[in-house]
Amino acid sequence: MEPIRSLSQMVQILRSRSIRRRVAVVCPNDPHTEYVIIRALREEIAEFLLVTDDEHLEVAWHLRSASPNFVHIYTAGTPDEAAMLAVHLVRTGEADILMKGLINTDNLLRAVLHKEQGLLPRGGVLSHVAVARVPLYHKLLFFSDAAVIPRPTLEQFRAFIQHDLALCRKLGHEEPRVALLHCSEKVNEKFPHTLSYVQLKEEASQGMFGPVFMDGPMDAKTACDAHSGEIKGLSSPVVGNADILVFPNIEAGNTFYKTLSLFGDADIAGMLTGTLAPVVVPSRSDSGNSKYYSLVLACLAGNQND
Amino acid sequence: MEPIRSLSQMVQILRSRSIRRRVAVVCPNDPHTEYVIIRALREEIAEFLLVTDDEHLEVAWHLRSASPNFVHIYTAGTPDEAAMLAVHLVRTGEADILMKGLINTDNLLRAVLHKEQGLLPRGGVLSHVAVARVPLYHKLLFFSDAAVIPRPTLEQFRAFIQHDLALCRKLGHEEPRVALLHCSEKVNEKFPHTLSYVQLKEEASQGMFGPVFMDGPMDAKTACDAHSGEIKGLSSPVVGNADILVFPNIEAGNTFYKTLSLFGDADIAGMLTGTLAPVVVPSRSDSGNSKYYSLVLACLAGNQND
């Protein structure tokens, strides 16, 4: 399979393979969520299990009228109960994906992370992965972690790199190129993440991550611009040609996300991973396109059994 | 004075005021430095004190031949001695600005930070300030710290915000809008910089920073995009309209710098400040334009007596 090069191409892949995921939506009663649901129904890539609290049943019925065969309604008393029920639907295999509607992210995550009845396997690491289509880059750019893990430990780096690699391979990159980001090329104990990077590269060279190129520390420009690498006398399969950017902390990852979307004219899809099934948690300030492509990305990723 | 809105406008200001700074250059023997010197001579905004080690005297003579009245040559045995001599020229008032040529940044900084004979006042804080012209933003964007301070303490935040404000005011913003950046709006003791932000806002409200609007924590998109602020129900003179972005750590600041320059099609000027005079330290992977405008910015900033 050729690597996917745009977000809209993800839709074509789903359609050409007649993949139609079952998406459990918690509290689908805000305009953004409705937009995503209606567009996904029209493009025939998903069917929906709408889990609504008592107060908003009418919105759910309205959505169902658009496509009765592909919209199912479940009711729960409160948003928190709706979250628990939706998580249950994913656990029991009735849904493939969990998506957030009008519920506080922290409350949704409480249900997702519940020790006995949640979606995170024992010892698993929840992380965020984003996929960006940037006009000034020659392919899709995957990156973590812009939203969940504040200061990744070695173990957390290892886990979320595995998540990102799995997704990147599903989108057609057989041997992804992973850049471990810092503000320079220097390994320095004052910056503990650079020590983690040395260990991760060692593990990659031993095959622990499967087929992969991994390099760093390097800055974001060196990772994505071959000319910058040349000037610095750096050359590796990763320099100037990264598929996956690994950020040292959440502020750097979040800055990249926001700067790309604001000043790089990029479309960005994102989801939570490490869970039994992808969890779609659109950010309020994302564009409609970004919100929709986040669901599309989750549909393409599928659950852990795919 | 109307705020300056582009980097090239800085050149016009210097020319219209007939400001011609004296720039001491350490080891001006690489093509990038030569380019900057020749362009500055042609645009008549600077004269140069070239401090060269014994080996590269010929390059200096070649540069002098282009403009004998505005190029002066000083010799030192080694690059480290050249750095010390250039710093001395600034300390004694013979030069207004220090600029790096082909010398290791760490070696140059050793001379700059020398306790008795360096350029940092007792108790001063060295920091980096960058000024970006981004096609998708409506004015210049100032930010710190992308290059010097790894994890700013409250005292370091306070100092570099003062440096940035001084520069921002010199470029015509009488009441700059300062955004204190984080990945969300939440103050959280797990993120100590958000506690510093609370204190800084308090100090700003007491007038410690002079005429200023200061707000945060907020993310980069909220700081620069009014629509994102609206969606989140946030409104302040800073939201969507920031002049100065304060980053919580060097990786976030550096990521912003590199992402803007690579994917935001931005021109960025930068310099070290907090010293008796600006220090221009172009990064190897900066464009020729960025390197030149870094010198122009320093010329406009002038030394602490301006």
Structural description of this entry:
Chains A, B: InterPro entries: P_Ac_Bu_trans, Phos_Acetyltrans/Butyryltrans, PTA_PTB. Chains A, B: Pfam families: PTA_PTB. The structure is a homodimer of 306-residue chains. Chain A has 306 residues and is of the alpha/beta class. Chain A has two domains: 7-120 and 275-301, Rossmann fold, CATH 3.40.50.10950; 127-263, Isopropylmalate Dehydrogenase. Chain A contains eleven helices and eleven strands. Chain A has helices at 7-16, 31-42, 57-66, 79-91, 105-112, 154-170, 192-205, 220-224, 226-231, 250-263, 288-301; strands at 21-26, 46-53, 71-76, 97-100, 127-133, 141-144, 177-181, 213-218, 244-246, 267-273, 279-280. The first copy, chain A, has a six-stranded mixed sheet, sandwiched between helices. In chain A, helix 1 crosses helix 11, helix 2 packs across helix 11 (288-301) and helix 4 (79-91) packs parallel to helix 5 (105-112). The longest helix of chain A has 17 residues, at 154-170. Chain A starts with 6 loop residues before the first helix and ends in a 5-residue tail after the last helix. The mean pLDDT of chain A is 94. At the A-B interface, helix 8, helix 9 and helix 10 of A face helix 8, helix 9 and helix 10 of B.
